[in-house]
User: Fold this.
Amino acid sequence: MASLNWIGKEAVVNHDKEVPFKLLKKIKTASVGDNSQNLIIHGDNLEALKGLMPYYYGKIKCIYIDPPYNTGNEGWVYNDKVNSPKIKQWLKKTVKLDDLTRHDKWLCMMYPRLKLLRDLLADDGAIFISIDENEHCNLRLLMDEIFGEVNFVGSFIWRKKEGGGQADANFVREHEYIMTFRKSESFVWRDEVVLENDSKYNKTDSEGKYTLLKLAKWGNTARKEDRPSMHFPITAPDKTKVLPIAPDGSDGRWRVGKIRMQELIEANLIEFQKKNDQWQAYEKIYFEADKNKVIKARSIIYDLANTADASTALTEIFGTKDQFDTPKPVELIKFLIKHGGDENSTVLDSFAGSGTTGHAVLDLNKEDGGTRQFIMVEMEDKVVKDITAERVKRAIKKYGYEDGFEYCELDKPLFNERGQIEETCDFRQFATYIYFTETQTNIDPKKIDDNFIGELETTEYYLLYKGKNKNDLDKSFLKKIKDTDGKKVIYADRCLIDDDTLARHNIVFKQIPYEVKVY
Assistant:
């Protein structure tokens, strides 16, 4: 397999292990609803991913990220605190087009984040990454190295815009890519399945029962200016030309493009009806008895939604234009989530930006009654507060979504500069971290009591932690532990029990903070 090398690679391959573990602090005043499992996290996404590890290691079913494309015009800055003199020279410097190391910086930024994202991903999960030509080839080799070439699922080509682009050199670039990798062969691509019954098929002809579906687009983006290429005439039975009309009476657009429309015409699958002296065009959908209809996704996403749709959706929510430069459309993210996860998936977006992923999850749950959850991470203070969280908050109110979200900030590191446990760390947070570092699995909160924090196979784990210098393991504590033959790992400040007694009870003492593993 081809390998990729770049300036700084040797310094970042294990940087995810060097990132300090920070606690998540919930901000109730910025949250919506009570005890939601949805999270919007304000902070550096590398630190946030590390902080999520004890809670979500191996649990994320679907990841979507939209990282910087590294065009040289985005104004992104490399700020990871890597222990490398060469990389330290990059800090706080905007990455520009004429920067000869811009590809190296981008790869150094992405490598540790992708490693943590892979650790968070479930064995049957998948990750989708939006990208363009600037880093597409580098990303493919990077993903081959981290996820394994065998786990490459494929790349979508998404048509992101129509027309325009006269400033582009040589030819107009209308597309981007969405690269898809799985965690393992346990991943199953989910085709769209339409469950058929004949209750809605209220018409009959020589071919059988059928129903009609309006060919003119309705709802959002139904106007001609939304998709000009899908505003064209078709011929009615009386040879007159019929154009689509939007719900508000203005010029509209069809649901399908010219090629698909011609296919429907040739297959005699269009029916016209006259209403108020105007022809209305409908697609004939025939009932197929005892057969589920499987709709295979296509690698070229052509007519689903584009960047103009994304901007329109933001404008409708905020009431003003140009809230965010590069939003992704809700329908695109819904498409990926539906194929990459199930109705109970946890969906993660660590480059949250305009908050489309959270909006898409809430919209899907409303459509199909699912219980999906989202986690979004955004670093920029103004973006996360004024756009990411505000967009989801307004969408909940505007569209009647039932769930809310918890807004979180990254708190202090678990360990301070002297290697001591931060005073703000409570028992449950500390227990969660210890259990994860010991077992590489997520804790079951229901099993935690005053000292017992969990078990794995024949080993039980205990934590004595009630603040500074109050955590002694003595003989009185032996009455509180389970009477089993298995090993018992007990974390405390001091041990006041002799070695023979410890051995008799099969106890392994670990001193806080010196023997707490740093993950």
Q: What stands out?
A: The chain is about 25% helix and 25% strand. The CA atoms of residues 263 and 430 lie 62 Å apart.
